[in-house]
Design a protein that fits this description.
Elements: H1 3-20, H2 23-60, H3 63-74, H4 81-121, H5 133-154, H6 161-185, H7 191-200, H8 202-215, H9 227-231, H10 233-268
Length: about 290
């Protein structure tokens, strides 16, 4: 990426951070959190113990896991045996939580955040196309399924420390890029305009998605509390949802502040063979 592109990414990032402090954005971030809290709270209340028991039963019937547990006993770490099943369940649940948060933000927050950016920065922008709700849901569903398949296929590679650090953020980044680009432009850009922008700005947009993927790894630090974290797993999952919601709210604003100027510049030069990238204008209202 060249310097002007990096400058536009940074310009969009600081604008997104500033918007995250607005009361309207803070209020919007609570809506997905409340919905996720109800769903996760219900699952944790009625399904956590049963889920742990089910995973423990699977591990007890698997020869490989028995060898691993026997190795823990041989190393004097038999007290960790009881933590293995909850840990495995958490590792399975966390990707689902990430996907749920991204889809909740895309469905509930992104349209409102995009309209906020348009109203403040591009009040004259005309909507030339509005994607249907079903089209948006299908786009998000298809991208989510592909991301989960990539996660499942890449799981054995997670045993290699370097790949365990690289692969999940790359997959989450690709999913974030696909979902947020569509939802940011869904109510304003035509399919041709959206495809042109995705092709012209693929590298910076994917880079932004990957950076969001690494930001999304922050809630994983909560599980560093060890056994205490497992004991408080339902509450930590809810706290994780809140952090994920804030991260993806920032991501939605970041993509909006990057894509909407690009769309505005492209429309301002309709005869250009190549899409025009927006210049950084000092003193432009945020």
């Amino acid at each position: 990426m060249n310097v002007p592109v990096v400058g536009r990414m940074l310009d969009a990032a600081w604008r997104a951070l500033a918007y995250c402090l607005m009361p309207q954005v803070i209020w919007l971030s609570l809506l997905p959190l409340l919905l996720a809290a109800v769903v996760l709270g219900g699952l944790a209340w009625w399904g956590w113990s049963d889920g742990v028991a089910w995973v423990r039963g699977l591990l007890d019937g698997w020869a490989v896991s028995q060898h691993a547990l026997a190795a823990l006993d041989g190393w004097g770490l038999s007290q960790l045996r009881m933590a293995v099943a909850p840990l495995v369940l958490v590792l399975v649940v966390i990707p689902l939580v990430v996907v749920m948060c991204l889809l909740l933000v895309a469905a509930f927050m992104t349209p409102a955040l995009v309209k906020l950016v348009v109203r403040r920065r591009f009040p004259g922008m005309v909507s030339r196309h509005q994607a249907s709700v079903w089209h948006s849901l299908w786009w998000s569903f298809r991208a989510t399924v592909l991301a989960l398949l990539m996660l499942a296929v890449s799981l054995p590679l997670w045993l290699l420390p370097p790949l365990a650090v690289v692969l999940p953020p790359l997959i989450w980044g690709w999913l974030t890029y696909r979902v947020l680009v569509f939802d940011t432009l869904a109510d304003f850009a035509t399919p041709a305009e959206r495809e042109t922008l995705m092709q012209a700005h693929r590298t910076p947009l994917l880079t932004m998605g990957v950076l969001v993927g690494y930001l999304g790894a922050a809630p994983a630090a909560l599980w560093a509390l060890g056994v205490l974290a497992l004991a408080l797993a339902p509450f930590i999952l809810l706290l994780s949802v809140w952090i994920y919601t804030l991260v993806f709210a920032f991501a939605a604003l970041w993509f909006a502040h990057y894509l909407l100027p690009a769309l505005h510049a492209m429309r301002a030069a309709p005869t250009s063979l190549e899409p025009v990238t927006p210049p950084l204008v000092a003193g432009e209202s945020s």
